[in-house]
Amino acid sequence: METVALSELPPGTVAIVESVHGARDLRRRLLEMGFCNRTMVTAIRRAPLGDPIEFFLRGYYVSLRTEEARCVVVSPIPAASEEERSTPSGLRLRK
Amino acid sequence: MAGCCDGCTILKKDHAKGCRPVPDSREVRRFTVALAGNPNSGKTTLFNGLTGLRQKVANYPGVTVEKKIGLCRLPDGTWIDVIDLPGAYSLVSQSPDEHVATEVLRGTRSDTPAPDAIIAVVDASNLQRNLYLVSQIIEMGRPLVVVLNMVDVAERRGVRVDAEALERRLGVPVVPVVGHRRYGIPELLRAIGQARVAPVPDWPIAEAMRGEIRRVAGIDPMQADIEAHYRWIEDVVAVCQSTALAQGVVESPARQADEARVHPLTVEPIFRPPTHLSERIDSFLIHRVWGLIAFAFIMGSMFAAMFWLAKPIQSTLSVFIGMMGSVVASHLPGDALQSLVRDGIFAGVGSVIVFVPQIAILFLFLAVLEDSGYMSRAAFLMDRLLSRVGLHGKSFIPLLSGFACAIPAIMATRTIERRRSRLATILVLPFMTCSARLPVYGLLVGTFFAVYGSLVQAGVMLGLYVLGIVFAAAIALVFRRTLLRGQDSGFILELPTYKVPQPSVVGRQVWSNSKQFLTRAGTTIFLICLALWAFSYYPRLPHDQAGRLPDEGARAAAQRSYSFAGRLGRTIEPGIRPLGFDWKIGVGCIGAFAAREVFVSTLAIVHGTGTDDREENLAASMQADRYPDGRKVWTPLVTASVLLWFVLAMQCLSTVMVVRQETGGWRWPVFMLVYMNALAYVACLFLYQIGSRVWGG
Fold it and tell me: What digits encode the pLDDT tens for the residues B553-571?
């Protein structure tokens, strides 16, 4: 699957963390905040002025500056199609 | 609460059995527990619940981290010490707060006893990340109790945590608690006695991983270690939390897809974060348009309260204190003693107390914003603006408060966890046009720009505000590139679930900050006021000279120019001439070290127009003021130079004292005094020298 920087993840998209780069202190803090490999992260929104970016992971919300989010490489999970979204239960069924 | 043991709010039923008095704090060392937990885990509310009013707030020596110790009574009647540690995400410290928390937990601080047991506070609605700190504490091998806090919030968010399963899994007591409702606190008190050393998990996956890592080059042990902790956490969460999968961790996309096929019901929540009240509030409060409008409104009301609500309280207070001073002084013999009491002691007390309403109001807002969870949203909204000059989103509120007064604003920088950002914010804060500059600007602009009409006057005033902001931004950038270079380990800011602010937490914040200001900075400010009084009162003008002067105003003017302050003004005149200042302006600027607005009353005294607030007299006298050779003292260029001096110079000594209080030493306040005044001097020098060559003075 194609990987992108977390900073490039469009709002509302879910992705899985593949690797974390950057300076040691920053990387440590990102990992400690739960950005470990194989963690699911959802991009929520950018701040009104364009930076930072809000994410959802492990049941909580955190915001990272773009330069920090750039240090996290993720592989996006394709979004559900409209048809799938409109299933009666509102659930996503994948084939 | 009154009667048998005041302040004791815990275990009311035990009071009936007879109550022992609150022990003397000098008693032998008591059993000590430390409250550790992530920021926003509800630690402080729990601390208040455990200790009631029996708290002592101080600072850890050398750092500006609050040290909170309280007394708590166990069901068997024994008293224990409870330390509320600063919030930490990890024991590998990256902020001063975390550093202190780690040192206390390890027992390596000489100023704090090593805790006999640790209470790890865990936010049940955010179990995974909170358990990371717990996993580190477990490795320390100390007796431990885990508090599962905010179980009510968790349940509202559809997360049910099985405390018994968690207890079995961790091997230490786990107590579900709702801190602000006091639910679970008696159980916690009983559990403290049963604190146990948790068996250190063998991090099974960690070992396997480590073996693999040694083979696969390029992955570093730090990452493997943290990930092993999280794997253990995921295992723990899986057995004790009913919606473990909803928290969103999967082995691999492939397995994720697999499970999706089998259990669409359990997988769905992963793809969409919850949409509870907190998320709905956020979709408004950090919305692109509404968010900024709401932000402007919240900040506007905070600023209005500081500026307009505090003002009448402040002026009533100072009028009252002034009257008291006059009354007391009138009963005293001798001119010197009267003046000491009236203009020294009472005026000194007044100039300390006058800050308290603003401090109280600002900290009321700060505590509400912080406790509700809005503070991180404000930082989220404003970070872009401030990160460009190397500051932090959380610098915004202190900087805004600086337009009212730098003193509460500098105290408010405590909300910035990052040390370098915080220092940079403090260093540029006095450039914000505080309300004490307004009388000075009002006098000068009103006197010398009146002929150009009110529009120009308003423009000049606005220009002075903008100039302050521009300098603050530029200087902040310079410091962050030089003196305070380097990243503060990133922005990484949690956006916690919104909560209703706890009155007890808010009240204590307001109280302890006001008290801290009065007892620490306040005493020094008072002494400085006394010194400045003596400086402008002594030496006395000889009687024969005073007798020859026609009226009271002239005598006061002569006295002022005869005093140390007046002599200093004359002595430094050669130094300030290149800026366009004469000795009277010099004396005024010296007076402004007490507070900037004192410039106006000092000028009035040296101009012999008295202190009766008749500014027209002073304005006329200033306009008519000439050098012996007939040149006007106050040319437009001189006015501009004085205004520039007031924009840039560090004058207010009370601010210097608060910087000392907040940075824990003389280094930064002295540095501020030197750099800001040097900057102001050089800027005024350039302005006046170039200006007088271009426009001929």
Answer: 788 888 888 888 888 888 9
The letter for the amino acid at B316 is: T
Residue B64: pLDDT band (50, 70, 90) is low
Strand partners, B84: B35, B68
Instruction: Give residue B209's pLDDT.
Output: 60
User: What interhelical angle do B598-606 and B552-562 show, nearest 10?
Assistant: 110
Measured between CA atoms, the residue of chain B closest to residue A93 is B264
Q: What is the pLDDT of residue B24?
A: 54
* Helices B583-591 and B564-571, axial angle in degrees (round to 10): 130
Contact yes or no for B226 and A32 at CB 8 A: yes
pTM for the whole structure: 0.82
Spatial distance between the Cα atoms of B339 and B337, rounded to a whole number of angstroms: 5
Rounded to an integer, the average pLDDT of B76-103 is: 88
- When pLDDT is averaged across residues B151-158 and rounded to a whole number, the result is 84
Contact B342, B611 (CB under 8 A): no
* A39: closest CA of chain B, how far (Å): 5
Judge: A28–B250 Cβ closer than 8 Å, yes or no. no
**In this structure, what DSSP letter does residue B28 have?**
S
Q: Which two tokens stand for residue B137?
A: 């504490």
CA-to-CA distance for B120 and B536, rounded, in angstroms?
A: 57
With respect to CATH, is domain A4-80 assigned 2.40.30.10? no
Of A86-90, B161-165, B296-300, the one with minimum mean pLDDT is A86-90
Complex ipTM: 0.86
For B308-337, the DSSP string reads IIHHHHHHHHHHHHHHHHHHHHHTS-SHHH
Closest listed residue to residue A76, CA positions, set A21, A30, A9: A9
Amino acid in the structure at residue B275: T
Q: What's the token pair of residue B211? A: 């073996």
- Structure token pair of residue A57: 């992971």
Cβ distance B492 to A14 less than 8 Å, yes or no, reads no
List the 2-61 stretch of A: residues with Cβ below 8 A of B: 14, 16, 20, 23-34, 36-42, 44-45, 47-52, 54, 56-61
CA distance B209 to chain A (A): 13
Please check whether residue A95 touches B, CB under 8 A.
yes
In tens, the pLDDT along B406-462 reads 999 999 898 887 888 899 999 999 999 988 898 899 889 988 988 888 889 899 999
Look at residue B180 and give its three-state secondary structure: helix
Chain B residue closest in CA terms to A12: B272
Yes or no, beta carbons of B129 and A34 under 8 Å apart: yes
* Tokens found for residue B514: 């006001």
Rounded-to-integer distance, Cα B151 and Cα B441, Å: 55
Nearest-Å Rg of the Cα atoms of chain A is: 14
* Two tokens, residue B28: 């032998």
| Pairing mode, strands B493-494 and A40-46 | unpaired
CA distance A10 to chain B (A): 14
CA dist., res. B86 & res. B83, Å (int): 9
Cα separation of B695 and B169, whole Å? Answer: 82
Please identify which residue in the block is written with the tokens 């020596």.
B61
Q: pLDDT value at position B216?
A: 63
CA angle B153, B154, B159 (to 5 degrees): 155
pLDDT at B148: 94
Q: Do B487 and A25 touch (CB under 8 A)?
A: yes
Q: Where are the domains of chain A?
A: 4-80
